[in-house]
Write a structure and sequence with these properties.
single chain, 4-stranded antiparallel sheet, 11 helices, 17 strands, amino-acid biosynthesis, NADP
C-alpha cells in the first residue's frame, strides 16, 4: 500500500492517490467528511478554519461506493484559492503583480530558510505553501478510509490529547478504544480528564493574548491487532519503527515513544517486562502493557500504545528575530495566519497516519487483493495464534 499527496496550501486543490486498498471495501464518504470537519475543530484554532469547509471528492478507483482494487484518487478543493488565484496560479507566468506576497524573511522553526537553500527558492512562499499543515487534510481523508478498512478486520484505534503545554490531562490511561472515544468527545480538547478542560482553555487564551503558541503530547491506542505484525529479522521490517517514522512525518512532531515511553529507561527490567500468561480458548496474553504492545518490532496482541510530542506552532503573533535572505538585515519574522495550538487536529492526523501504516502492514502480511479473502485469511491466522 502506498499513497501520495500533491498540492499547496493556497493552490487550487489538494490531490491524493492511494494504491493497494483491497477490492470490495465499502467507503462511507460522509464519515470521511466528518473526519475532515473534526480536523478543523478544537479550541485554539485560527481564522483559516473559518474559510475552508473541507469536502472530499472521490474521482477514481471506487464504483458505487466500493473499491475496485486499483488506485483510489481523492480531491479537496481549497476555497481560499479564490483570494490567491493569480498569486498561486499553476499556469500563469510570473509578473510583478502576481508576486507581491513574496516571503523573504524566514520564520524560525519553519521549513522556510532551509527549504529555500535546498531548492534555490528566492521566494520562500514556494516552501511555505507545501510545508504547511494544510497538506494533512488529505492524510486525514486517506486515514479515515484506512480506519474504515481496519474496522472491517475488527481493529480500532483512537488518538487523543494527553497534555497541552504544562497541563497534563491523562491521569487515567484506559486501554479500551471505545471507552476513550466516549470520554474525549465530551469536550472540545479531546482529553480524558474532564476537569482539565477549563485550565487548558485558560492557558490557550492567555497564550494567545501574549502572541505565543503551545504544543503538547498526543496518545494513541489501538485494539484488535493480531500478534506478529512487523518482523524482527531486519531493522527496516520492524513495525514500531515504521509507526515512529509515520508520526514524525507529521508537521511539528518531535518525539515518539511506546507504552511507558521514556520512563522505561529509569526503571528495572523486573518493573517493565510484560509477563506472559496463557488461557485455554484465548491463548497467550500479557499481564501488563508497559511496552505498548510491541516486542522485537512486532505486535504482541496487546493494545498498541504510542505517545507523540508536538512542538509549539512556529508562527508567532509576537514574531522572533530573523534575517532577510536578500539584504541580510535583521528583522522580525513575517506573520502568516496561525493557530495558538492545533493539537486537537494533530491528534486526528496522528490517528490517520498510524491507521494507514497499520493497514499497510496488514496488506503486506496477508493476501489483500480482495477484502473478503483477506478477512478469511486473518480469521485463520488469529485462530492459529490462539492454538499455538
Amino acid at each position: 500500500m502506498y499513497y501520495l499527496t500533491a498540492g499547496e496550501s493556497h493552490g487550487p486543490q489538494l490531490t491524493a492517490i492511494i494504491e493497494g486498498l483491497p477490492a470490495g471495501l465499502k467507503i462511507d464518504i460522509d464519515e470521511v467528511n466528518r473526519a475532515l470537519h473534526q480536523r478543523q475543530g478544537g479550541f485554539g484554532r485560527g481564522d483559516r478554519q473559518k474559510i475552508e469547509s473541507d469536502q472530499v471528492e472521490i474521482v477514481g478507483g471506487v464504483r458505487h461506493q466500493v473499491t475496485l482494487g486499483g488506485p483510489v484518487a481523492l480531491v479537496v478543493k481549497n476555497r481560499d484559492h479564490g483570494n490567491w488565484g493569480e498569486i498561486m496560479s499553476p499556469t500563469a507566468p510570473e509578473t510583478a503583480e502576481n508576486s507581491q506576497r513574496k516571503l523573504e524573511r524566514p520564520r524560525p522553526g519553519h521549513a522556510d530558510l532551509v527549504g529555500g537553500m535546498k531548492y534555490r527558492h528566492r521566494d520562500l512562499r514556494n516552501v511555505l505553501e507545501r510545508s504547511s499543515a494544510r497538506e494533512t487534510t488529505l492524510r486525514v481523508a486517506l486515514g479515515n478510509i484506512a480506519q474504515q478498512f481496519l474496522r472491517q478486520l475488527d481493529i480500532d484505534l483512537i488518538a487523543y490529547v494527553a497534555q497541552v503545554g504544562q497541563v497534563a490531562a491523562d491521569s487515567e490511561k484506559p486501554l479500551d478504544v471505545s471507552e476513550i472515544r466516549e470520554k474525549i468527545f465530551q469536550n472540545d480538547m479531546h482529553v480524558i480528564d474532564q476537569d482539565k478542560v477549563e485550565p487548558i482553555h485558560r492557558l490557550i487564551t492567555e497564550t494567545k493574548e501574549k502572541g505565543d503558541t503551545l504544543g503538547g503530547i498526543i496518545r494513541l491506542v489501538a485494539n484488535g491487532l493480531p500478534a506478529g505484525l512487523g518482523s524482527y529479522v531486519s531493522w527496516d521490517t520492524k513495525l514500531d519503527a515504521k509507526l515512529a517514522a509515520a508520526a514524525v512525518g507529521v508537521n511539528a512532531m518531535k518525539g515518539v515513544s511506546f507504552g511507558d515511553g521514556f520512563e522505561l529507561g529509569t526503571k528495572f527490567g523486573s518493573q517493565v517486562m510484560d509477563q506472559i500468561d496463557w488461557e485455554k480458548g484465548t491463548g497467550f496474553s500479557r499481564l501488563s502493557d508497559h511496552l505498548g504492545g510491541f516486542e522485537g518490532g512486532m505486535t504482541n496482541g496487546m493494545p498498541l500504545v504510542m505517545n507523540v510530542a508536538m512542538k509549539p506552532i512556529p508562527t508567532l503573533y509576537q514574531p522572533l528575530q530573523t534575517v532577510d535572505i536578500n539584504t541580510k538585515e535583521k528583522h522580525l519574522a513575517g506573520i502568516e495566519r496561525s493557530d495558538t495550538t492545533s493539537i486537537v487536529a494533530a491528534s486526528l492526523v496522528i490517528q490517520s497516519v498510524i491507521a494507514l501504516e497499520l493497514a499497510k502492514a496488514i496488506c503486506e502480511q496477508f493476501e489483500s487483493s480482495s477484502l473478503e479473502r483477506l478477512q478469511e485469511e486473518l480469521r485463520r491466522y488469529r485462530q492459529e495464534c490462539r492454538e499455538y
